[in-house]
Design a protein that fits this description.
Blueprint (H helix, E strand, L loop, with lengths): L5 H12 L5 E5 L7 H13 L11 H13 L2 E5 L4 H4 L3 H5 L8 E4 L4 H4 L16 H12 L11 H11 L3 H12 L6 H16 L11 H11 L3 H14 L4 H8 L4 H10 L4 E2 L5 E2 L2 H13 L8 H10 L2 E5 L2 E5 L2
Parallel strand pairs: 1-2, 2-3
Antiparallel strand pairs: 4-5, 6-7
Helix pairs in contact: 2-3, 7-8, 7-9, 8-10, 12-14, 12-15
Keywords: Leucine-rich repeat
Organism: Sphagnum troendelagicum
Protein name: NB-ARC domain-containing protein
Length: 328
């Protein structure tokens, strides 16, 4: 999931251990980079060739990289890869079986991109922060300490940390945004905090203008989906959260529903808990509901608007406790 801390964690691991290897390379945010530039970076980091001196990569250069990976103890991190680049970078992954002293870490939003190149046993899904960790991170960015909550802010701090639901990026952005208003008096700040919490819960940008990094990060995963997956994502965000997976599949009633749901799982947009119920992170849910409103979809989840829709629609199709509206 975007904002869960994949890049932060892989950077930390890289800085902790890269000196234990003969050669190492950290390729950051690769999906925004040109494949030739990435190969040149590898050539420089692993083989000592200055990338500015290489105009065009040739077969000998690639062979040199591969030989280095096999003959030396190498550590490579490939951060935020996508399906467009994975095949071009497959040579970086291919050395694993030939040199057990070397290691590679790949971060990605979609496991489906990697499963043909990496062993399932090597998969690690970064977990959400627990309540204690989340509180410490939020306080660090808000009050610049990890223990003490300013008097009078105890309740609102609890609410914000709960609303962020263990997502590091959300906690950092909210904390940093609220810290900027420390010069305001206490009552004004409390009202400001409440307004920021409301915006967070409704998927709106905190500053009222340009999209902040939180929603930009989450929207990337949604925008990359095909239309059937987008529709399924919005269904879950609006009213299928907490529903049994098997029941949701029966409602969708499509030959491709199982595949589309698996695609959402692979991208960490949807999870199935131990009871077999569909779950989604709160920020993803709020973003999905915002999109449903913007796209004027007939998805109803707010009890306040249910009666109005029941009165306006000529046909109401019900399945269990979920409502689908259709005009005739």
């Amino acid at each position: 999931m975007g904002g869960i801390g994949k890049t932060t964690l892989s950077k930390k691991i890289y800085h902790l251990f890269h000196e234990q290897y003969d050669k190492s390379s950290f390729l950051e945010d690769v999906k925004s980079k040109n494949i030739e530039d990435l190969k040149k970076q590898l050539l420089q980091d692993l083989c000592g060739r200055k990338k500015n001196n290489v105009e065009v990569m040739n077969g000998d250069d690639l062979k040199h990289i591969e030989e280095t990976m096999i003959s030396k103890k190498v550590f490579v991190v490939i951060d935020d890869v996508d399906e467009k680049l994975i095949n071009d970078l497959s040579k970086v992954l291919a050395f694993q079986g030939k040199n057990r002293k070397s290691n590679v870490i790949v971060t990605c939003r979609n496991w489906g991109v990697l499963e043909g190149h990496l062993d399932l046993n090597g998969r690690f899904e970064v977990p959400y922060l627990n309540k204690k960790q989340a509180m410490e991170l939020f306080l660090l960015h808000t009050f610049h300490n990890t223990k003490q909550v300013e008097k009078g802010f105890e309740n609102i701090v609890e609410e914000i940390v709960e609303a962020c639901a263990g997502l590091p990026l959300s906690l950092e952005i909210m904390g940093g945004f609220l810290h900027k208003k420390q010069s305001l008096d206490m009552q004004t700040r409390l009202q400001f905090w409440k307004g920021a919490l409301k915006k967070l819960r409704t998927g709106k940008n905190l500053d009222g203008g340009k999209k902040d990094i939180l929603w930009q990060s989450l929207e990337i995963s949604y925008r990359d989906l095909d239309q059937p997956e987008k529709d399924m994502f919005l269904d879950i965000a609006c009213y299928f959260g907490g529903l049994k997976e098997i029941i949701a599949l029966q409602i969708w009633d499509s030959e491709s529903s199982t595949l589309e749901l698996q695609n959402l799982k692979d991208r960490s947009l949807v999870k199935v808990n131990k009871d077999g119920n569909l779950t989604m992170h709160d920020q993803l849910r709020d973003m999905g509901r915002k999109f449903a409103k913007e796209e004027e979809e007939n998805r109803i989840w707010d009890p306040k608007t249910n009666l109005q829709n029941l009165q306006e629609q000529k046909v109401v199709i019900t399945t269990s406790n979920y409502y689908f509206f259709k005009n005739l």
